[in-house]
Amino acid sequence: RRLELKPDLGAEEALRYFDETLADALDRQVEAPLSEDDGSRYDYVTVTKGGEGGEVDYGRLARATNEFFLSLCVCHSLIVETTDEGEASYQGPSPDEVALVETARRLGFEFLQRSSKHVRLAFRGRELTFEILNVLEFTSERRKMSVIARGPDGVVRLFCKGADAAILDCLRNYKFLPDGDALIEATNRSLHDFACTGLRTLCVASRVVDTEQWEEWDSRYQEAAASLDDRDEKIAKCAEELERDLNLLGITAIEDKLQDGVPETIQLLSDAGIKVFMITGDKQETAISIAISCNLIRRSETAMVCNESSAEDARRRLKDFLKDCEKSKYYTSGCAESSRRELVIDGPTLTHVVGTETEKVFAELASLCSSVVICRASPSQKSAIVRVMKEYEMFSHSRWYAQEGPIPWFPKLYYKTLWRVWDSRALAIGDGANDVAMLQSADVGIGILGKEGRQAVNNSDFAIGQFRFLGRLLLVHGQLSYYRLAHLIKYSFYKNISFALVFFYYQFYCGFSSQAIIDSIKATIFNVVLSSMPILLLATVDKPAEMDSLMAHPQTYNRSRALSSWNFWKAALVKSTLSSALSFFVPYLSSTVKGKHGTQGVYSLGATIFIALLGIIGIEILMLSRSWTWIFVAATFLSYILAYVFLPLWEALLRAFKFPNPEYAGIAEEIFSSPAFWLQILLCYLIAFGVRFVDRAVKIHLFPEDYDVLAEMDLKRRYSGDGDGSKPASSPLISIPSFRRSEREEGSDPEAKPQTER
Which of 146, 415, 448, 598 could disulfide-pair with 160, CB 3.0 to 4.6 Å? Predict the structure, then answer.
């Protein structure tokens, strides 16, 4: 009403006008019986005398205001809690309800207490008690909530609030009332204006229900509530019978304020190559306004908007958009402004798309757009969008996807288990109960712990406090987790296969007699203690680059293919074969019987191979690590030195317990006293280090990865005189020709993006 009566007033002036002008009228209205005029109060449409544009009728305005705030204070699911300071605070699942009821309290319409059957209010100093008869909860299908209550006058009323589309369809026919069309037109105009400014709108309505009508309806409702089959559908049908011929009381508009850092985080994700979808239940105008403030939509005039009422029209419109996108050749987020394509589609249109062949057209179109905004979406549609995009990313390259009809089960099994082309993953993030289905459908679900409750957090894989933390979660912790876990998996296979191949090689020289070159005790110590410690620390503390560099260069996200087929088998099989062959054949072919202490015995040879292989694995781990820390280096050397301590210590323990074992008796003294042993070990380590050093040097100088360039930049900043890389105090430890070339080409800019440098 403020916009219609006093559109030039600000918030404070409006409150002052409310207090000064309406106070007396409201006090008189509150003191009057609620059943005054026997419901004739609903015959008014505007609050002016003589139609729209006339003088304000403050008595009529007071009645409308009283009914409006009465509906807000009764129709909600809040409870009253007392803080430590003794003040009352409202708690509930919806922050919108908290904001509305709190606003009503500040204006003199206070919600005092809720019990199982009653609601106690204080309107302008007068206490009112309403008996709660029925509560029709909000659902995503109904998109509204209703409360049936009996007032102190004995009149049964239905109070309802919900989405504008759901409430406006349930109103009585205003065409036959004075200025009825003007009211509906003004309401729609206000809803549109609020939505365009990014406000979340609700409509408030009510009606008087005859007692006999309610009793008859309540019997059917209780029967539906007690039903075990299709209870939700039966309850919704009963609610629809009573939620009709409503009287519009007003609309509310709440600012759904963005958290700090949301536009910057979305831009960061876009730079990282992540496709961003915004799926919301708000109006289309509200969704577009929020998308513009989040930099998802650059210009609303050029956005492709799809609002169709039939399946044929929706398919035709999506195909037209798809042709336009294919002409613009948009495939990356860094395209020119003129070639950006942004899609906006609403929930009613999605009902004609999801579950049909048109969803494949939608998925292809969405994959070519820079951003996608979906409004008026229900929780089931949010989950369906995730499923559609996952299926497109997984099966779009197969011939079965282009065919009409569902994909057979065998191709689905093949592509899910054996085919490794699909690298994309779906991540969903939400903060409310209506996002639970979407979070569970995605590969990774992230819940935001906020004012919407804990439903999203309880059903998610990760929980964060604010949306801006998503950037660091993905770009830093996500990359570090993938990098570390990939190396842990690869090099766990590497050390185990290398150890197993030593036994395989020896079988060719022992007549395939199953003689073990290394005994079970050494094998256990090797796998459990000595070789596991460096790899575990590598997967705990190693990082490809500094965390600030990972955040500053989001283009490096998801560029690594450490667990691809070639990289995995190269580390697990090729390197294992070379390392095991080096540790076996060098000691075996160079063993000698000359001198006092020879190394030709099977147990001496086994101990030599055991120590040689352990050192080679340590060298490989040290050369693999991109960031040496003192604990990692100390643990690697300690695990190697323990091998020299283990052999004589275990032999001493066996002698102390009088348990002779020829595999250890005198072996440590024999090999440690033999020059051949030390020469064999030294030769193995020199070859292993030389091969790995050449491989690493060639890779860094000729085929550098993004992480190599970032490491060079970090070193340059670390050893520079002023910290910005312009005055290096000393030469960096690693020098990459590709980086130096890009530096000269781009004016020695150390902050250049890795992809540009490459």
Answer: 146
